[in-house]
Amino acid sequence: MVISMKRHATRQEIDEVTDQVKRFGYKVHSIEGEERVVIGVVGVGDVTACLESVEAMPQVEAVTRITAPYKFVSKEFRKEKTRIRVNGTEIGGNEFVVMAGPCSVESEEQILRAAEGVAKAGAKLLRGGAFKPRTSPYDFQGMEEEGLKLLQKAKKQTGLAIVTEVMSDRDVDLVAHYADVLQIGARNMQNFVLLKALGKCGRPILLKRGLSSTVKELLMSAEYIVAHGNPEVMLCERGIRTFETITRNTCDIAAIPALNELTHLPVILDPSHATGKRSLVPALARAGVAIGADGLIVEVHPAPEKAISDGAQSLDLGQFEKMMNELKPYVELWKDTRPQAVAAAN
Amino acid sequence: MVISMKRHATRQEIDEVTDQVKRFGYKVHSIEGEERVVIGVVGVGDVTACLESVEAMPQVEAVTRITAPYKFVSKEFRKEKTRIRVNGTEIGGNEFVVMAGPCSVESEEQILRAAEGVAKAGAKLLRGGAFKPRTSPYDFQGMEEEGLKLLQKAKKQTGLAIVTEVMSDRDVDLVAHYADVLQIGARNMQNFVLLKALGKCGRPILLKRGLSSTVKELLMSAEYIVAHGNPEVMLCERGIRTFETITRNTCDIAAIPALNELTHLPVILDPSHATGKRSLVPALARAGVAIGADGLIVEVHPAPEKAISDGAQSLDLGQFEKMMNELKPYVELWKDTRPQAVAAAN
Amino acid sequence: MVISMKRHATRQEIDEVTDQVKRFGYKVHSIEGEERVVIGVVGVGDVTACLESVEAMPQVEAVTRITAPYKFVSKEFRKEKTRIRVNGTEIGGNEFVVMAGPCSVESEEQILRAAEGVAKAGAKLLRGGAFKPRTSPYDFQGMEEEGLKLLQKAKKQTGLAIVTEVMSDRDVDLVAHYADVLQIGARNMQNFVLLKALGKCGRPILLKRGLSSTVKELLMSAEYIVAHGNPEVMLCERGIRTFETITRNTCDIAAIPALNELTHLPVILDPSHATGKRSLVPALARAGVAIGADGLIVEVHPAPEKAISDGAQSLDLGQFEKMMNELKPYVELWKDTRPQAVAAAN
Amino acid sequence: MVISMKRHATRQEIDEVTDQVKRFGYKVHSIEGEERVVIGVVGVGDVTACLESVEAMPQVEAVTRITAPYKFVSKEFRKEKTRIRVNGTEIGGNEFVVMAGPCSVESEEQILRAAEGVAKAGAKLLRGGAFKPRTSPYDFQGMEEEGLKLLQKAKKQTGLAIVTEVMSDRDVDLVAHYADVLQIGARNMQNFVLLKALGKCGRPILLKRGLSSTVKELLMSAEYIVAHGNPEVMLCERGIRTFETITRNTCDIAAIPALNELTHLPVILDPSHATGKRSLVPALARAGVAIGADGLIVEVHPAPEKAISDGAQSLDLGQFEKMMNELKPYVELWKDTRPQAVAAAN
């Protein structure tokens, strides 16, 4: 159950509602928005009685019964897709948004060339890691704050928004200072301390699915972020780990329409990590558009053969531009399927 | 190494070549086509010396070195996609071919209604199981020959070609008598006795990927069929088994472009078994077109709620027609990417 | 529900019972043993009414309600472990039975040396493949009937019983002629035509778990064999396919006690395929004894470095003997946990 | 390559060696022990030349060439098992060490009863979570510092050492203040920021394998901790995620002997998470002893039916005591296989 309070409800009115809910055995989890407080009701209690009682309270706008274990991120809570504005672009709306750039920020020249190239080809966000989660302690761990500064420089030069990874709750404020979108890597999808810290960071989140995480666990991790105060979460399918080794991971593409049935959060496809193989990226990107993702995040490097990490799955600038051109007619078809387009046509 | 003999080479000429190859330590595996014999050379030996020696023989047309463990099905052996003609339709060519119909043949009325519906919506082959591989010995095992006869009746009435499963080498001739395409189910992908028996059946094969089979194993199983004399094999991605349970299987969609890089055999997507969920089928079908599959096989039932098996993943006739209409613009884009179209444009 | 008829019930008495059961909407699946007919009742109907009605019939000995989808193999149907006598040895009883031998029968010398070695070290059955399921059509496919004859020769010389694989329903009679136990390989676990053919073969079956088969599917496949008339089935855990590649498969060892809770059939562990690595076999064998398997099947080759198949996971004769000696104290502890031992102690 | 400096080498001597190594193109990673500095050499360079040059330096005790990507944790670096002393108990030596206790610390009464019970039955460490990683933000998140204080109280009362989870680098000092061993949960196995923070915490680490992590990735994560200064790491197999759902996870028991071949770090088995099912725990625990684990970590709760988390997999105190008694003869056999025992016998 989720209770939406009337706008500008007072503290006392809110407390009355939460006290009432607790009488039925429940716990509450409130999110205080600018205009409205929303109260998540969780736990075990007498649903029907509680619902009837709360609905009758004058300060309550609406009560929504939610059967899924995730509340705020469920389609039951909100039918229309969440739209997230980033630097003039809207994710989850009528625009198919492409994020692109190198795995790691390696140097000023590299990131600026990458940024210019992907901007020219039509990307709206620049990706690039400054903090890198690497399997080996001996591998390049990222340029850290210096890398963030280079991303900011690239933003100034190209107008691209920045999406970059944060690996620790300690670094959330630092990364949020430089980035437009904070990315949570697959290996941190269930780093719950980090997820909680994102609740107050003031930036949209790109939450990547864990290597062996189910769709439901992905939604529960998103719920952590939203329940701690940040409703702007994008989910990212980036391949899961299976027995098949011909690709780096196995792209669970059907998870995209499955998520679209379960949640209102935008869903982004990462065809680069999903395949690990440059030559497969454009075909998978087309499939991502066709199946109804809200956008892509693609690894692009000005010189993939020299990349410190993930060179094999990075497109060069020419390949990326070619892919973006090939995607155009698919994006046109995609637009026709958006609820907004459908609404306008009726 | 694969040796293509000149057309109409004599038995003696062929024997001379195979004898020569064996001198270098190899074994041979010949396929006798109508016009030409092709000799697969397998095993361990002195590649360079053998190749040079055989190339110089007058009765030899061409020698192709093949590094993959699968020979006849590899892209190294043949660059252009294999085109398979079935009842006036060509799979692997310029047509995106849809096969549709119920999981099982259940009754005359059911299969005829299904056939008419899917034909009207644009399918070219009718699917329907007469021999059913069921996890439980107590579940419906199929109508067997009676079901095959009903399929034949449906073919007469609608002009659709028939694709249906064969589960045992004993039944290959029987099923080949009634069907245009023989389907090998996922659980039989490594039933090697059955695969060998398909070599001489005179029908194209639809080979489904095993639940936990790799792309390479799928190709090796196809190689069994081709090496035993039947070059007309279509591969089918139908989802693999992973930890994720929100869908019945996990569609390894990136396997389709990966296969297109490795083999010349056509690749079909089965969005029904891949998801197990009716509502996800149309979106996955779109992705299949966009990613470059050669066709689809889709479960359609006139009354899915009454289906004996796989009702949850079957479209009804109206849903199938709607899906086929939605696919049309994607199929138009698909045609532009076919080598034939590209060739014509140059 | 499973109905045990009284001993020597007449055909008419049996028919009266099955007719009565069908009146309640059920289907029946009868197994005719030498002394007694057992009737499996499957499908959907009015359980309570049917049970009461049948229990009252004079020719009925007992009725057991079974909730699992597998009936005859379930612990609900029979509490005590099924004991299978093979050539003087009893599997499922108070003896921990080891089967050992090479992957493939390669030559008379090889199989005789292997047989003598494993017999001396304490094995009771000789394994060795004459029909080999190989991923590649170009790999050694087995010596077929010639191999079976060599196995028979080895049996005469050593007294070992023979367990060997059958790959097709066509070969069941042939293999049953030579072998004491018929092995169904992992890739054929859901070859339902083959499973049905085993029902009348007159030999115990060793049914290996499929690479991606669940414990429940393994039990359903065993149910196929039993429901078609053959109650002597042993199950074999041989590793499943996962993302981990450091071992050839992942041994799901906890499936052994899980099976012991669900079924009365004996459970055998194959530590060779489960690991694919010789050095890990003895440790895993110890674990198999400790966890309560009923026996082991182990790959042993007189000269593993020369083996045509599976050399890397085969022990040589010395290593096998050493392992058997190390297992002895574990087998002593194992005996103390057998219900028979426990019963004797009380 | 790993360079062991002579005891009490001076800063200048160490610098001379690292400078020399860097001349060959390598990077260094030093660990400063109390008596001796050990220098890990990583990266790409001229191995042979570097090795010869460094071996000749007088301040160098020994140089070990290591081909594995993990250096300090590899068996190539150290042959004998690392022994870790905790509160008078030695893990990795001649004692089979059992850690036991509830999933979460829930109350003073609960943890004290658990501690007394497991101590009495022979456990040497008490487990119990104060910081809990939970899939849902609405589930109990642990008692945090209050829980740590209760663990300390239990330690005082029973003499048991404490092992408890730390979820964030922020909390390492806090948890290290109360605990004897810091546990890293499966979901944090690749939380690299946390792993680095453990390097200086002054406590042994129990590192659990991630749900979809390979054995090699587990070793690389251990290498993070050791390379950052903490050589006292225990590895824990707790089941991996596969398609099988009859158990909560799939115990990859063969990973234990595989790890014993690759690393000198002690390996602990968690039969509770590996199965998720109380009734399977004792059998799997026996297998763990037999296969050569160095210890167990087992969930035990005084009243499992009332447990806030993981009740289904928790033994009650009587069951735990029974299991410990049953393990005794297996532990006796285990002792005979320890290198120390073997050495003493020679």
Task: Please explain how this structure is put together.
Four copies of one chain form a homotetramer. Chain A is an alpha/beta fold and 346 residues long. Chain A folds into two domains: 2-64, Alpha-Beta Plaits (2-Layer Sandwich), CATH 3.30.70; 84-345, Aldolase class I (TIM Barrel), CATH 3.20.20.70. Chain A has twelve helices and 14 strands. Chain A has an eight-stranded parallel barrel with strand order 7-8-9-10-11-12-13-14, surrounded by six helices. In chain A, helix 7 links the parallel strand 11 and strand 12. The radius of gyration of chain A is 21 Å and the shape is globular. In chain A, 58% of the residues are buried. Chains in contact: A-B, A-C, A-D, B-C, B-D, C-D. The interface between B and C is large, with 39 and 39 residues.
**Gap between N and C termini of chain A:** 33 Å
Secondary-structure element order of chain A, N to C: EHEEHEEEEHEHEHEHEHEHEHHEHH
Number of strands of chain A: 14
Query: The CATH topology of the largest domain in chain A is what?
Result: TIM Barrel
Which of globular, elongated, flat, extended, rod-shaped describes the shape of chain A? globular
CATH architecture of the largest domain in chain A: Alpha-Beta Barrel
Query: If you average the pLDDT of chain A, what whole number results?
Result: 94
User: Pairing-aware structural class of the strands and helices of chain A?
Assistant: alpha/beta
Report the oligomer: homotetramer
> Biggest interface, and residues per chain?
B-C, 39 and 39 residues
